[in-house]
Amino acid sequence: MEGIKKTTIMDAETMQRTLKRIAHQIIENTDGAKELVFIGIERRGVTIAQRIAGYVKEFEGVDIEIGTLDITFYRDDLSKNSDQPVVNESHFGFNVDGKKIILVDDVLYTGRTARAAMDAIMDTGRPQFIKFAVLVDRGHRELPIRADFVGKNVPTATHEVISVKVTEFDNEESVTICDRKNGD
Ligand SMILES: O=P(O)(O)OC[C@H]1O[C@H](OP(=O)(O)OP(=O)(O)O)[C@H](O)[C@@H]1O
Ligand SMILES: O=c1cc[nH]c(=O)[nH]1
């Protein structure tokens, strides 16, 4: 569409390489990924968690259980997010007590989703630790939250949007940056 500025910052090959690197970093930083569990944030954070877990299995032979959290922003009008992300559903097939948890999401922006995710996890027990893995950190944090494993740091303007696409949901693999000011 005319006027939309859309730039691809990762293609399928780069995404694969990036997720493999994160898998290696997680293995290095967690004593061979022993006794780890992943919690993915729906929807694409879960796909990313599954991919990283697949690479950990391939590289280290370790099976990682994956729990899921469904978090959406409560939108009080059509143009603006309210301040409060809402946890809709969680599926952990494990007790989080004493667990080493890697929280996984596609994009880190204000940090509010990560905060809501950590609150939801801590409400159910006392993990040994929570670390955070994201495919893209686009900056603009509103809370003192950072990721331990970052695929790519992408400096953005607030009027830009990072869009992560995965074959499972989008029939393509890409990360793009779109400029909302120019119509998208
Ligand atoms: O750090 P934050 O400001 O909380 O933003 C990050 C969250 O925003 C995105 O979800 P979004 O609500 O855009 O929905 P989507 O997953 O359907 O794109 C993304 O998947 C993260 O979960
Ligand atoms: O640009 C953004 C901001 C939050 N979540 C996204 O998926 N993209």
TrEMBL record:
Enzyme Commission no: 2.4.2.9
Superkingdom to which the source organism belongs: Bacteria
EC main group: transferase
Domain named Phosphoribosyltransferase: residues: 9-155
Reactions mediated catalytically: UMP + diphosphate = 5-phospho-alpha-D-ribose 1-diphosphate + uracil
Similarity section: Belongs to the purine/pyrimidine phosphoribosyltransferase family. PyrR subfamily.
Function, in words: Regulates transcriptional attenuation of the pyrimidine nucleotide (pyr) operon by binding in a uridine-dependent manner to specific sites on pyr mRNA. This disrupts an antiterminator hairpin in the RNA and favors formation of a downstream transcription terminator, leading to a reduced expression of downstream genes.
Protein name as it appears in the record: Bifunctional protein PyrR
Gene name of the record: pyrR
